[in-house]
Amino acid sequence: MSFFIDFVIHIDKHIINIVNFFGDWTYFILFSIIFLETGAVILPFLPGDSLLFAASAISANPDYNLNIWIFILIFLIASIGGDSLNFKFGSVLGKKIESGNSILNKIIKPKQLKAAEEFFNRYGNFAIFIARFVPIMRTFVPFIAASSHYDYKRFAKYNIPSCLIWVFLFCGAGYFFGNIKFVQDNFSIVVLGILFISLIPIIFEVIKNKIKNK
């Protein structure tokens, strides 16, 4: 776990190491990380927002020969494809996990699923849209929606626009602001800031539930 924490905090340096070592395979590696973050269901801790920001910032530097438009394309495919695979898993395995009759119960924490279910029930259709911008939620909301017999076409109606906005927002921010000297000198702080802002909805819900329970 310490490796993943270090990877997220110093993600710019790790991506540069990947570029230097793997060259053009960097596109496939970063595509896989974004795809698996939601697609694999069991990997919600993989970086999302910060990876898009850092990769796009590095692509703005001509020394690394990375193309921002290729990043935008593969991240779009990865996010939409990952959510679609996640939805498929939910439609097949959701009820088994809820009943406690699946080995996935040992991997996927019931507390995480419960939080996603409450999030989905509270915000309805909007939950599918906003979940893409919230770590953890974007991994479990598609799964919960599918296990609740939500129609895939209806799911895609909200999911695809959210993926488009998510990718263009973080790739655009990284490309245009990632190479400002202040951002470069404080990249780890900026990454932590991105994580904190994206977690605000979850923090708000936790505080709200605690107040309600009291």
What is the typical, i.e. mean, pLDDT? 83
Strand content: under 5%
Note the overall shape.
Answer: globular
**Measured on Cα atoms, how large is the radius of gyration?**
17 Å
Q: SSE order in H/E notation?
A: HHHHHHHHHHH
Please mark out the parts with pLDDT under 50 across 5 or more consecutive residues, or reply none. Answer: none
Account of the protein in words:
The chain starts with a helix and ends with a helix. The chain is built from 11 helices and no strands. The chain has helices spanning 2-9, 11-22, 25-39, 49-59, 68-99, 110-123, 125-131, 137-147, 152-177, 181-185, 187-213. With 214 residues, it is mainly α.
Q: Concise description?
A:
With 214 residues, the protein is an all-alpha fold. It is 79% helix and 0% strand.
Draw up the topology in text.
Blueprint: H1 2-9, H2 11-22, H3 25-39, H4 49-59, H5 68-99, H6 110-123, H7 125-131, H8 137-147, H9 152-177, H10 181-185, H11 187-213
List keywords for this structure.
single chain, 214 residues, mainly alpha
